[in-house]
Amino acid sequence: MRRVNAAATPEPGVHLRRTGERSAEIARFMALTGGAVGLEGLLADLNRRGRRSRGWFGRAVSEAFTWDAEDRRTHEWYPQGITTAAFADPAPGREVLAVTWYAKEQGGLNRGSRISFYDLRTQRYRHVLLVVPSGPVTGQESADTPPDSGWEPLRIHAGGIVWAGPYLHVAATARGFYTFHIDDILRLPDGLGVADPTRLVVGPEEVAAFGYRYVLPARFAYRAETAAGVPKLRYSFLSVDLASDPKLLITGEFGRGAQTTRVAGFPLDPQTLLPDTATDGRSFPTDVSDGALTRMQGINRVAGTYYASVSLGPFLPGSIYVGMPGDFRGRHAALPMGPEDVSYDPATDRLWSLSEYPRLRWIVAMERRGLQP
Question: Which of 79, 129, 258, 276 has an alpha carbon 20 to 30 Å from 104's alpha carbon atom?
């Protein structure tokens, strides 16, 4: 297949630029924590129990799950993005969802963002704190040590997530998105790991991650860039269309009032499933469509048709819209209050979404065949 982002491709108004990979810093983290455990190690140690939910959650909802009491009620953490493991490689061997949360500041502390891995069969799950390599490793500074070899919380809205191959892409709004490798999940070791919810530090004497046992460091990022005079694209949420040619990473904008509501598709390398880049690390969209939907929270494309969620706040049920940018048909009261991201599982032909507000938090499935335009 011809590479879409060949050097001769004309530069459109928006594009992404991939940053360098932080493999050396992550290797140092692994040495300090005893090595990565990856997804398999995490799924063997799920410590929280959700449950299947009964009741009415919207006209389009066929099945619903929820979190434990603490996660249903917390005002610090808000769930945002969701992805199935349908396009994960290697596959986890069970039906797993990955859900992103962002933290609001409490007591002068913002703990950043996290991913929950949720086993739908057992309704067990665990949170993994997201970190970015930055700052010196405590006690390891030397002339041979890079100055950016510690970790910091990843403070982003995390409005969408995609699991494609071994990579997890997490939306970072105006910044673009961050990319993680599933094999990099680290477990803080017994004895060295500090269960201190106020500290984040990595060093030879102690490791603390705001009380979390598992962390996942970002490998690299795709930075949002625009040409002069073009509004910067907001990467509010993410999904993939792997049945198209070329395979696409789909992103869109949450917008209201005079804000843009664009949808863009970035071609993926068919082998790595990473955004296809030119020699200078830039990735260009195949198309950018404006005028989608106001208050759009997530979007997915299946067989050329888009499925988008729209929130009407904490007091009214959410909507699902089906169609194309500029030509959507709305199905109202289709989702719980405060719906967020949308993901697709081709094995079951189901769309998945979730809701964000305290005491109104569910993970919900929709039968796509019942949503045809």
Answer: 258
